[in-house]
Design brief:
227 residues, alpha/beta, 6-stranded mixed beta sheet, 8 helices, 6 strands, 15% strand, elongated
């Protein structure tokens, strides 16, 4: 009996770490959800949203879309989204209609739960253009490794493309986030380990401090890290 009593007296010290881990995990997850809702209020979607067969896509329009002529479609490199163009889209809007968009899982476009096929990127852009500006020819402006998607779109829909502009096509996109970082973000621990999101190191000079904070905040979300 005495040995059994001693064993049970030692149990609280042994079990307490096992109880502490779920409590801390629940607190981290709750904090992550609360801060995520605050960030959604602080950074609401700045542009429009198109429902493409149940897969919403966030996009922005610049310039005069009543004007005749082709539209410029700005496609960011892998791991980045429309916000990274900063004021470039607004400046180009003085020359021609401009379309920017967020691919699934990036920016304000939710992640597509269905497995992605090799032609999904061009098909999604084709559907977006059909919903926004049907029958309007486009000039694809691809940044970095987005040239793969631009060439794919031009091969699949050659009658819609009147020009290609490939910016630094040899550059690669943002390296994929590690599995550990994605898991920590999904469980809510990333905010505890990294309370202040780091600014990307390759921002354009004209990007404002507010836009930099926005990019850093979105870049910490689990869906963006996964994409």
């Amino acid at each position: 009996c005495k040995s059994t009593a001693r064993r049970y007296l030692r149990c609280p010290a042994m079990v307490s770490p096992l109880l502490l881990a779920p409590l801390l995990g629940g607190a981290a997850w709750s904090l992550d959800q609360a801060l995520g809702r605050r960030e959604q209020r602080r950074y609401p979607p700045p542009n429009r949203r198109a429902e493409l067969g149940g897969n919403p896509m966030h996009y922005g329009l610049r310039g005069d879309w009543e004007r005749e002529g082709p539209a410029l479609v700005l496609d960011a490199r892998s791991g980045e989204w429309s916000t990274h163009f900063g004021r470039t889209a607004e400046r180009l809007g003085a020359l021609a209609p401009v379309l920017t968009y967020d691919r699934p899982g990036l920016g304000w476009s939710p992640r597509d739960p269905t497995p992605a096929g090799p032609d999904d990127a061009s098909v999604r852009l084709h559907r977006l253009l059909g919903a926004v500006a049907p029958d309007r020819p486009v000039i694809l402006v691809a940044d970095g490794d987005a040239h793969h998607r631009a060439l794919q779109f031009a091969r699949r829909y050659p009658h819609e493309v009147v020009g290609l502009l490939l910016l630094d096509p040899g550059a690669t996109g943002v390296p994929p986030a590690s599995r550990t970082r994605r898991v920590l973000a999904r469980l809510g621990w990333l905010r505890w380990l990294q309370p202040h999101a780091a600014f990307p190191g390759d921002l354009e000079p004209h990007v404002t401090a507010h836009e930099a904070r926005l990019i850093a905040t979105l870049g910490r979300r689990p869906g963006v890290l996964h994409a």
